[in-house]
């Protein structure tokens, strides 16, 4: 459980870290299954429903930057999604009812890992209110050297930015970030980070010899309804992790810029962000 001080810090800064949430055995299981997925990706040559591949990917040297919706493909990831230690923390922040939106295992292999440019998750999935967050489960230690998340504390209370270039959604902001405000979100393996859906964040390439694998679990209060891509009541309710389904939508006056029109090539954040101009890129090498 979080202390009052940790809850206040989340409300004020728009992110927190909590160490020692998963035990070593569980982290080892997550690593082992993730390694198996990466090994199997040798048979894949293009992005598909499971894999988002690094540009350097090959059969001889498989390089995966994301396993998409990993809880669909293996029970160990579903177990992480339902982990009581994680849900107890999330419940304190946005509960009592919790629905997950999506899951993803974002990976940065040593010397390869793709950066993620500055963005707010809110730009990708606006809802009727913003009691929405992303839990990052560190299956490796997250360090500055291996490309941990970077955040701008307090930005979740600031503007909702356009993530458009030339009138097209490209999933990254155009404004420059004041480097002195950026905070690295470091956490040991088995710990978690949590960031608010409006917190500005990104991450740099992995410049170390160590892997950086972060299981992201995106969760919302059950009464947050998506403004885009509602897939039907049954599917919606099947993603409830705590609490009961509701037909009520809590509507709050949160600014929204819809992620439209979509770019020519849709897909993951990596794919979308590669369509922006070089001048806009801030975290690339
Ligand atoms: O994996 C990362 O470093 C950042 C990922 C992220 O911000 C996202 O997938 O929305």
3D structure, described in words:
There is one protein chain. The radius of gyration is 18 Å and the shape is globular. Helix content is 21%, strand content 23%. It has helices at residues 4-13, 24-40, 70-73, 75-81, 84-94, 233-237, 269-273, and strands spanning 15-18, 51-53, 64-68, 98-108, 116-119, 132-138, 149-151, 164-165, 168-169, 183-185, 192-196, 201-203, 212-221, 240-242. A hairpin with a 2-residue loop joins strand 8 and strand 9 (168-169). With 285 residues, it is of the alpha+beta class. The model has no long low-confidence stretch (mean pLDDT 94). The chain has one domain: q2cbj1_9rhob like domain (Jelly Rolls, Sandwich). The chain is built from seven helices and 14 strands. The strands form three sheets. Strands 1, 2, 3, 4, 6, 11, 13 and 14 form an eight-stranded antiparallel β-sheet that branches. The longest helix is centred in the N-terminal third of the chain and has 17 residues, at 24-40. 2-oxoglutaric acid (AKG) is lined by residues 106, 116, 121, 149, 201, 203, 214, 216, 269.
């Amino acid at each position: 459980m979080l202390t009052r001080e940790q809850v206040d810090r989340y409300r004020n800064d728009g992110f927190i870290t909590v160490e020692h949430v998963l035990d070593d055995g569980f982290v080892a299981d997550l690593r082992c299954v993730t390694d198996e997925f990466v090994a199997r990706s040798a048979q894949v040559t293009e992005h598909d429903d499971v894999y988002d591949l690094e540009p350097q990917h090959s059969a001889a040297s498989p390089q995966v930057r994301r396993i998409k919706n990993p809880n669909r493909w293996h029970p160990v990831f579903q177990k992480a999604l339902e982990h009581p230690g994680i849900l107890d923390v999330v419940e304190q922040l946005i509960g009592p009812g919790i629905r997950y939106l999506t899951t993803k295992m974002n990976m940065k292999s040593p010397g390869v890992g793709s950066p993620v440019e500055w963005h707010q998750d809110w730009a990708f999935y606006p809802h009727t209110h913003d009691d929405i967050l992303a839990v990052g489960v560190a299956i490796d230690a997250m360090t500055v050297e291996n490309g941990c998340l970077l955040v701008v504390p307090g930005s979740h209370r600031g503007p909702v930015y356009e993530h458009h270039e030339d009138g097209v959604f490209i999933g990254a902001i155009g404004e420059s970030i004041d480097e002195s405000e950026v905070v690295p979100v470091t956490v040991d393996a088995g710990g978690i980070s949590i960031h608010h859906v409006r917190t500005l964040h990104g991450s740099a390439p992995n410049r170390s010899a160590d892997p950086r694998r972060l299981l992201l679990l995106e969760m919302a209060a059950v009464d947050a309804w998506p403004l885009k891509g509602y897939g039907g009541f049954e599917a919606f309710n099947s993603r409830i992790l705590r609490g009961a389904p509701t037909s009520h939508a809590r509507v709050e006056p949160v600014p929204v810029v819809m992620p439209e029109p979509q770019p020519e090539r849709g897909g993951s954040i990596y794919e979308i962000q590669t369509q922006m101009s070089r001048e806009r890129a801030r975290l690339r090498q």
